[in-house]
Each structure stands twice: as structure tokens, then as C-alpha cells.
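FAQ: What does the model actually see?

It sees only this:
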Amino acid sequence: MTGLVLALLLAQACGGTGNPSGAGGCAGECGPASLSSGDVRLVIAQAVAAAEALGLPVTVSVVDRVGNVLAVFAMRGAATTTTIAGTEGEGLEGQTVPAALAAISKAGTGAYLSSQGNAFTTTTASLIVQQNFYPEERGQPGGPLFGVQFSQLPCGDLATRFGEGSARTGPKRLPLGLSADPGGLPLYGFDPDTGGGVVVGGVGIEGDGAYGLGRANAAEERIAQAAAAGFEAPAERRANRIFVIGRSLRFVESERAPSGEIRPFDQLDGTLLAVPGFAPAAVSPGVAFSTPASGIVPTTVGGLATEILVDADGRPRFPPRAATTPGGLTEG
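And it is asked to produce this:
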């Protein structure tokens, strides 16, 4: 289930021409777009300014559309670990893990669950992955994506891993799977003429030392919103525009944090972190979705548009093959 769910979610999106800084355009079918190193630094600087305004040192992670970790930055004084709350269904209750892992999972969730049709956050996920929908309303059916928080765990056989050759092809694994802890938002690139947007990545914030399903943490979510300034999801795509059995989902539950002084990246009070198995202590640009470098490319099957997973050379990772049993499906 792990790889299949993620592949289906990613297949919802197309790329977009131009870049988040404004060049190019996006309307209908789109070409590739990606975060630059400068974009990543700006997102982190905006997060730090907001965190300073709220007085909460945090760890910030930025990922691209297919989960490559582009940077992890820890403010001075930020909690180095977080404890997974004993929330029903998480499966890792009581474990204390590096805060960077939580920030990465939050950022990846914003990127993976969003598309050109919908924009979801970790707050959205908190509503739809739990045993009941709405959460805590006993006797109700499971959420529309009940259990999907277990998707993209490091043990998955579809997810690619950091350091496998020189490839940055995705989709990449997430250290704690998809997250339902507030503080993870998607990042969108925009066409200044049409207002069209394309998912280019996600940002995740961890700072309170606690991590779980659907915990209300206004500070982390407020900082994430400030970090995403200029890369916001289009309003018409946000989860609060989507209704499930007559009830609206949620995009965020708090106001954006006030903006403090946004300083140049090299003047920020903190440090880039190396996260073994996920990222070096550096800032990297993202890869463009729907290109071989991203690991996901468009194709057609039976005349229908779809996407397939490819390696760094553009070769299908899972090519079709005929069944080995008599009378089984053919390759074509």
C-alpha cells in the first residue's frame, strides 16, 4: 500500500512552466518548475523571522515535489528531539526522535498530498487519517485516508533513498511517514499573469518537542504559514473548499505569525543540519517534477495520460511484464 498510495497521490499533479520567482506561466497542462537554492533560503529566513517573533526556536525543513530534502535548519536553542504522542493509530507512541525527522515528514506531507487540484497540509491530514471522521466522534467511519500516515515510511519498497548513486529521483521516503501534526504546508510556484500555481515542494516546522495525530499546535502552524509567504497555495485549491459527507476539511486552524525582521540567510541565528540518510548540511535546489531527474515522467497508456516511475536515466523502474501463468495478462 505504501508505494501505491504515494504514486497515486503524485500522479494527480502536473508540473508548471517558469519558477516560483515569477518567470513563465501555468494554465492547464504545464511544464516543469522547481525551487531554487535562493527560494529555499528565503523560505527558511521567513520561518526564522516568524519563530523569533513568537519566541519559539524551531527546526525548519524544505523539500521538493518528490521529497528530496533541500535543507534542514535548526535555530539556536531549538529542541533537538521530539516525542511522538500516544495518539491512537500512530504506531510509534512514546518514541523520542530527532526534531529534524519530524520537520522533514511534515514538509514531505505538504508536498505529497497537494496537487494542481487540491492543497492539503498536515492539519488537513489530521482530519482524514484517523479512525473516525471527524476525529473523536466515536461511531463514525474511518477518515477518507485512514491509515495513510504509514505511507512513505523508510521501509517502503517503492521510495528511493538519499545517496543512491548520484540520483535525486523520487519519490523519496519520509522518516516518520506522512504526518498529521500541524506545521507542514505545501509550497507553490506562481504565474503572475494568470495566478496559476504548481506544487514545487513543502515546508515543515518542529519546535515544541511533541508530535502526534491531530494535535493543535498553533505556533508551529503559524510559523509554517509565514515561511510559505510568496509560495502560498492558491485559495481556490485549499482544503477548506473541499467537503466530505457535508463537512468542510481544514487547511489551517490559525493565523499566520507576525513577520519579524527577515534577515539574509547567512545572518540567521542557527545552523544547517546534516540528517543521516536524508540530507547533507547544505542548501540544494529542487528538481523539476515530470522530468527524468524527478523520477516521475508523463506517458500514455492505451491513449490515456498518466505518469510512470523512472530511474535517473529515464528508464521505467517497474516495466510491464506478461503473467507467467497460462491464460494470464499479456505485457501489452
